[in-house]
Amino acid sequence: MTINKWLALSWLNLIRNGRRSLISGGVIAFGSAALLLSIGYVSATFEGLRESTIQGGLGHLQIAAHNGFDDPRAEAISAAQAQQLEQQLQAMPEVRLTTRRILFEGLASSGDVTIAVMGRGVDIDQERKISLFTPIVEGRNLSGQDSGWQAVIGDRLARNLGVSVGDSLTLLTNTRYQGINAIDVTIKGINRSGIPELDERSVMISLAAASLLTDSDQVSRLVVGLYETANTDLIADRLQADTSISVQRWIDLFPFYGAVVNLYHSIFGMMGGIILVVVFLSVSNSMLMAFMERVNESGTLRAFGFSRGRVIGLFSAEGWLLGALGASAGLEIGLLLMLLINQASIPMPPPPGRSVGYPLVLNVEVLAVPAILAAMMLCGTLAAWLPARRMTAMTITAALNHY
Amino acid sequence: MNSPLLQASGLRKHFDQGDNRIDALQGIDLCLEAGAMVAITGHSGSGKSTLLNIIGTLETPDAGELVLWGNPVRWSNRSADVRQREQLREQGLGFIFQNFNLNPALTALENVSLPLLLGNDSRRQREQKAAAMLERVGLGERLHHRPGQLSGGQQQRVAVARALVRQPRLLLADEPTANLDSQSTSLLLELLAQLNRDLGTAMLFSSHDERLLATVPRQYHLQDGRIQTCHQPETSA
């Protein structure tokens, strides 16, 4: 009740000085909207990069035999152990799917041209569920109903080999027992991951074809897809109890993500800081000008018996209210802009290391809303407190005679 | 015997203006009883406003003592002493300023309610008291007008209502008619005399306005920081 009457007075001063309040509130609103949009953009960028990476074939977790990630000569996972691990994983409610991969390095020859490639044999049906973001740009993806040995290759590889869909390709690699083996495959589709280095060397064939090619039923990687990315650490911790295997999270397999996040955090952290400083200085300046016109008012209040602290509190409350109102308006405008931008599907150029653009998407970061509100309320309060403190530092008679 | 409402003795105050020292007050002794109506007269720069500011505890004297309704005023900047002066102003002093000093953003009712915020009244009680006081000063029809919508005389009456709404023991008015035309001045003077009679509030004016001085029974003439003469035609203190 006591607080209410002081806030009510601050509110009256605020709304009756409409023009001044509108200018200061407008700056706060603009800053709040800018912060919300920036945070939404960064969040969407992080999420997009993370999920496109995970869904682009990386999975949330990958399991290899002990030291399998560090030593290329390490033994792969035996078929029996792979089956046991799959059963264990499928019993976990957080796990969406598991899929086997056989990785190989070798040569692809079109007859005229031979290029070193990185191949992978995949469980076609399962793989499709985890490689949503690797679009086929020509032909079709592998299918369980395929007859004969079929392959999907990267678009740059196809261009360099001079092949297209329907053409035949010879794949050559070492077998598990250090022999050399080759199979002929038909190109069924050409894909584009968006990572040029990968698209220059990528060959995907069925697990059965890879098993035949490498002359082994061992599994190089067991890829685990989860329902929620947030559960990655939880499942990784559970699996790491088994010392016969090595487990890597998507973030370990894709360290570029951490670098991007750090870079963006520093860029947008600085940008957010600059926005806050600009808002603070602008509001502080307009508050200072407004309060200098009201020095006389502060002297009058103190003549009535209002303490200096009470007068500072009264003026600071105006800043606090201005911060709250300006930020609320700015956040609403920001949310509306987000909605419009998300619906407009504005095309963005490909990010570094990618060859495919993406639509501009802004995430609504729920935690950012109260954080911006609190930051702007603090900013408004501080911007009012400083000039109010200065204003009330003069004697009452000096304040009364100030015009 | 009741103690006087105000007792000042040996009040001194000087100001430095560059290399010049101006002795605004050079030992003022003054005594005021409850319900008294007194004017401090003198030329511009004679120290009238300084004396009123010190009596109103708005300004600190260099020397001398001031006792308000039995409380010796403590002048230091220690928080307890600052608080004492704030409480004396809150509980017993009302101010009318030459330039009215109304908050232009607030209505007449809100301006008059302002000093009541320091009390424990509810909003309704504050508004009732403020409306009653505005009614008393003849502005019952102007409760929701802002200062910019009122004439100078009306604004000063709002200031009178604001000064009296807490029913102070002593009203201090520094040149209250300086910015008013003759008609507004007459109305204000009638009003103040009536409020002095009805409410029993002691009033201390500083003025050199002959129209005001004609209505005030006791006058002290201030010259060169000293009280030179005392005009007291009727009852003695």
UniProtKB/TrEMBL annotation, chain A:
Residues 28-241 form the MacB-like periplasmic core domain. The keyword Protease does not apply. Keywords: Cell membrane, Membrane, Transmembrane, Transmembrane helix. One of its GO terms (biological process) is lipoprotein localization to outer membrane. The chain crosses the membrane at residues 21-42, 263-284, 320-341, 361-386. It is a multi-pass membrane protein. Belongs to the ABC-4 integral membrane protein family. LolC/E subfamily. This is ABC transporter permease.
TrEMBL record, chain B:
This is ABC transporter ATP-binding protein. It comes from Parathalassolituus penaei. Keywords: ATP-binding, Nucleotide-binding, Transport. It holds the Pfam family ABC_tran. Residues 6-237 form the ABC transporter domain. GO terms for cellular component: plasma membrane; transmembrane transporter complex. The keyword Lipid biosynthesis does not apply. InterPro entries: AAA+_ATPase, ABC_transporter-like_ATP-bd, ABC_transporter-like_CS, ABC_transpr_LolD-like, MacB-like_ATP-bd, P-loop_NTPase. Belongs to the ABC transporter superfamily. Macrolide exporter (TC 3.A.1.122) family. One of its GO terms (molecular function) is transmembrane transporter activity.
